[in-house]
């Protein structure tokens, strides 16, 4: 809590200083903007701590916590000429290093000689599905946080590489495709005692999109090949065993070295109604394990108020005996309300009922005796852009 | 009953009289583009595909005082939703919103100096130097 107090002070100051200003222009070439969330969560779960994603080493314990949803992002958009632009974005949030240390989230050059073609090189977001590359921008979606059952298991935050995008109109519709390749490092926590460091040196994939009227459809694929090593007290204990190859042991158990992610999603947004549904399948090729995750969400705007509901689920399909207690099976039903106080400031509240059958990667500080059950999360959030 | 009918009629007439002008999407009259349809207007102003029917790159300009009326009319969305839409695209590095003109005078100035710039204006204020590509009924 001590660490995040200065951040909260900065967020409050930033939020109140110039909340009406959308952007600030520096001679039209550089645009500075930002986004942030002040999030508070109350958990009634005494046996385990709730995390937003597998990159967070600690979760929200029973009672109130502001750790998992609070963040601040700053961005500069640079226009070199009509065809060449650049983006740099830094963000502070509670992440895999166990603190709020800022990270470079985006840093790329974009060359677009024609509206139908775009080439980007540098640090890019991972847009494996329709929402993943904007999942930290609370102001952009109705919920307090993107459904944890679905987005909590995503492995990568960004990719250092390149992508190409092709767009073609078809009558009044639009079809477009993107292909990307690159590499990245990331850390995923399997439990309090074990984490995996991904040196993902071969990432490639793409997605096909179709937009017609208020509908947007996407089908996507990503393949991630990584060198993975392991840390934490469990890894240290295993390393003490003479002649034992820790890395080989854990890689055999997890199958993290080769991953494939398939995604299908649709968004329908005709005016006040917003419907979203996305399904992902993560395949751990070596062990023939796969993780299915999905959500459906509906929001309806009445003037400044947007009530919403979201249903999500995640399940690991594994014929083995769950050697690392990492398999997940969980469903969440949430209802919430977004209130747009101003055109750059929204207050949200949400109640989630989580039914956990197997906690796996998505809970921390889990009691040995806890194999799941019902949890209730009450969240409050303040999202802003400037 | 007749009295009630009169009151209703009177109210309707009043509201009709109070209605503002429609909004015209305009371009420099030197442009070869004669008209655009609603889908093309949405593609251009919402950053989906910024190409004009003649193949040239479209440069959309927002006019700040008319912005809320324009997007309510074009896509039935309030400003908070439009800002939310752009927050997703801007902070994922996908696209940028239209340039902003603070007034009709600034808009006219930009469009006068750019043949591929298009903006929107009250339909009863369209200058002779501009061509109306489409009219949004309110």
TrEMBL record, chain A:
InterPro entries in the cross-refs: Gram_neg_porin_domain, Porin_dom_sf
Any one cellular-component term (Gene Ontology): membrane
Domain of life assignment: Bacteria
GO molecular function, one term: porin activity
All residue ranges annotated as the Porin domain in the record: 14-356
Annotated signal peptide: 1-21
Entry keyword Signal: yes
SUPFAM superfamilies per the UniProt record, alphabetical: Porins
Keyword presence, Phosphoprotein: no
Alphabetical keyword list: Signal
Protein name in UniProt: Porin
Lineage: Bacteria, Pseudomonadati, Pseudomonadota, Gammaproteobacteria, Oceanospirillales
UniProtKB/TrEMBL annotation, chain B:
Gene3D superfamilies xref list: Periplasmic binding protein-like II
Top-level taxon: Bacteria
SUPFAM superfamilies: Periplasmic binding protein-like II
Signal peptide (residue range): 1-21
Keywords: Signal
Protein name listed in UniProt: Phosphate ABC transporter substrate-binding protein
């Amino acid at each position: 809590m001590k660490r995040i107090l200065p951040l909260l002070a900065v967020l409050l100051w930033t939020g109140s200083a110039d909340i009406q200003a959308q952007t600030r222009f520096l001679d039209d070439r550089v645009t500075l903007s930002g986004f942030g969330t002040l999030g508070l969560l109350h958990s009634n779960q005494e046996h385990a701590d709730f995390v937003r994603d597998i990159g967070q080493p600690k979760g929200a314990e029973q009672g109130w916590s502001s750790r998992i949803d609070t963040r601040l992002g700053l961005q500069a958009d640079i226009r070199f000429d009509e065809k060449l632009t650049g983006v740099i974005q830094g963000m502070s949030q509670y992440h895999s290093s166990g603190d709020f240390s800022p990270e470079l989230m985006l840093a790329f050059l974009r060359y677009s000689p024609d509206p139908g073609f775009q080439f980007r090189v540098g640090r890019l977001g991972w847009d494996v599905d329709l929402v993943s590359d904007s999942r930290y921008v609370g102001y952009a979606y109705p919920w307090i946080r993107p459904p944890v059952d679905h987005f909590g298991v995503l492995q990568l935050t960004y990719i250092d590489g390149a992508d190409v995008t092709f767009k073609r109109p078809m009558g009044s519709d639009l079809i477009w495709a993107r292909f990307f390749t690159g590499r990245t490092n990331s850390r995923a926590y399997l439990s309090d005692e074990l984490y995996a460091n991904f040196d993902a040196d071969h990432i490639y994939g793409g997605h096909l999109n179709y937009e017609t009227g208020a509908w947007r459809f996407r089908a996507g694929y990503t393949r991630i090949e990584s060198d993975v090593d392991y840390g934490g007290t469990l890894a240290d204990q295993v390393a003490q065993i003479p002649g034992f190859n820790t890395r080989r042991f854990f890689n055999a158990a997890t199958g993290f070295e080769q991953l494939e992610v398939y995604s299908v999603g649709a968004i329908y947004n005709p005016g006040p109604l917003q419907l979203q549904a996305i399904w992902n399948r993560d395949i751990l090729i070596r062990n023939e394990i796969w993780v299915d995750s999905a959500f459906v969400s509906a929001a309806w705007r009445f003037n400044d108020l947007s009530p919403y509901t979201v249903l999500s689920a995640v399940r690991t399909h594994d014929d083995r005996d769950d050697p690392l207690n990492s398999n997940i099976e969980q469903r969440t039903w949430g209802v919430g309300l977004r209130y747009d106080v101003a055109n750059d400031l929204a207050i949200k509240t949400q109640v989630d009922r989580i039914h956990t059958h197997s906690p796996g990667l998505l809970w921390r500080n889990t009691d040995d005796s806890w194999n799941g059950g019902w949890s209730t999360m009450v969240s409050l959030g303040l999202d802003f852009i400037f | 009953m007749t009295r009630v009918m009169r009151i209703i009629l009177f109210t309707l007439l009043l509201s009709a009289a109070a209605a503002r002008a429609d909004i015209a999407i305009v371009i420099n009259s030197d442009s070869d583009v004669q008209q655009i349809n609603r889908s093309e207007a949405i593609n251009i102003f919402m950053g989906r595909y910024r190409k004009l029917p003649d193949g040239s790159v479209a440069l959309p300009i927002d006019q700040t005082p008319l912005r809320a009326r324009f997007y309510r009319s074009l896509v039935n969305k309030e400003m908070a939703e439009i800002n939310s839409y752009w927050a997703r695209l801007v902070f994922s590095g996908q696209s940028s919103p239209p340039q902003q003109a603070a007034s009709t005078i600034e808009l006219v100035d930009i469009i006068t100096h750019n043949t591929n710039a298009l903006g929107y204006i009250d339909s009863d204020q369209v200058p002779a130097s501009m061509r109306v590509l489409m009219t949004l009924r309110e």
